[in-house]
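Request: Show me your protein:
***
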Amino acid sequence: MNLSSTIQLANGVAMPRLGLGVWKAEEGKEAAQAVQWAIETGYQLIDTAAVYKNEKSVGEGIRAAGVPREELFITTKVWNDEQGYDSTLAAMDASLARLGLDYVDLYLIHWPVAGKYKETWRAMEKIYKDGKAKAIGVSNFHAHHLEDIMADAEIMPMVNQVELHPHLTQEPLREFCAKHNIVVEAWSPLGQGQLLTNDVLTTIGNKYGKTAAQVILRWDVQHNIVTIPKSVNQGRIKENASIFDFELTEEEMQLIDGLNQNARFGSDPDNFDF
């Protein structure tokens, strides 16, 4: 495996296993430069969202890097206040305009807004059929939300992007997604930095000359979890990508699995108010 290694989605699209998240990267130079640095380092997956307010800068970073569009995998998401059928179609067009792209590789429903996400999914299916997104999926969906969509869906969700890290390993949800050929993608894989001093992770890292962050990202990759650590620091962006020159043992994987506390840093998809 290396930085251009991919995992296959249900429709045959190849999705990179490691990418750059740009949540909280400021619109303007900060976000554009982080994206450019990541692509120049060899990243192909860039993950943004309408609510991050930095799609325009992500597009600038993509163009500045000068890599052919077809070599990249760009994700964005429809925000909660734009869910519904017509508004989701409009939101997609607005995101494409801000990004300066003809299509995205993956379009996600950002959160399961009650009473709206099924209509939103119908719009996602149209977006997919129209070629504006090469793949469609969801974010922050529990298994019961997925079952609700899948009961009526013509096209099944291909990706579920959720909060996932060693303190929230999401094993039952991962099993559900594996059964239904849905790729799991981790946001906040480093637990918003809270896990970087964990003794188990630092001890394993010392053995390989790696940081706790690199150990976590390697754990993701070995579990077939796509992972998108966020950084606007050039050194950190490179460091996060340097996880393909070592392999965790089965015992080490189990030790990290054992750190689970079902602890969230973000909101619970069953109880959010935004």
Remarks:
- Residues 85-99 form the longest helix (15 residues).
